[in-house]
């Protein structure tokens, strides 16, 4: 096989394996799981880390699918390629692009679920209530 085809295959296998690892890491960071129940900050960090792995897996799948799609498009418009050996975009490319975009989107949602840091500002206080005036305050 060509080197570019082997590289796209390796990227897709890496994306699948990273996706599986991301599922396991993100599941341990979910609020409904009993694992690491005593420390909520570590639990949220696990969810964010799972999101980062999902984004990495989605980028690997996107690169592999786009690289192969570029190869198909270049071969299709090459005048020296025989007509009977030209490929077109198939459903596997569209499924790959959709899967990559959903993995990136899901990873971004997981990364947005990180715990908010407490601000160092003092707590806000309301305005003091004024006592009703009797009218004797005027000079």
From TrEMBL:
GO cellular component terms, A-Z: bicellular tight junction; plasma membrane
Keyword Manganese set for record: no
Xref: PANTHER family: CLAUDIN
Organism per entry: Antrostomus carolinensis (Chuck-will's-widow)
Annotated compartments: Cell junction, Tight junction; Cell membrane
Protein family membership: Belongs to the claudin family.
Membrane spanning residue stretches: 6-27, 47-69, 89-112
Transmembrane helix recorded as keyword: yes
Keywords: Cell junction, Cell membrane, Membrane, Tight junction, Transmembrane, Transmembrane helix
Protein name, per record: Claudin-1
Molecular functions (GO terms): structural molecule activity
Membrane association type: Multi-pass membrane protein
Pfam family of the protein (one): PMP22_Claudin
């Amino acid at each position: 096989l060509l080197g570019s085809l082997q590289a796209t295959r390796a990227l897709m296998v890496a994306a699948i394996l990273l996706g599986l690892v991301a599922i396991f890491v993100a599941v341990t960071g979910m609020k409904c799981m009993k694992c690491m129940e005593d420390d909520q900050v570590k639990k949220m960090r696990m969810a964010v880390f799972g999101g980062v792995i999902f984004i990495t897996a989605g980028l690997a799948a996107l690169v592999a699918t786009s690289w192969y799609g570029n190869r198909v498009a270049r071969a299709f418009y090459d005048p020296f390629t025989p007509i009977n050996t030209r490929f077109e975009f198939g459903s596997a490319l569209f499924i790959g692009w959709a899967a990559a975009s959903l993995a990136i989107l899901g990873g971004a949602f997981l990364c947005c679920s990180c715990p908010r840091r407490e601000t160092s500002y003092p707590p806000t206080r309301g305005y003091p209530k004024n006592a009703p005036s009797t009218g004797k305050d005027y000079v």
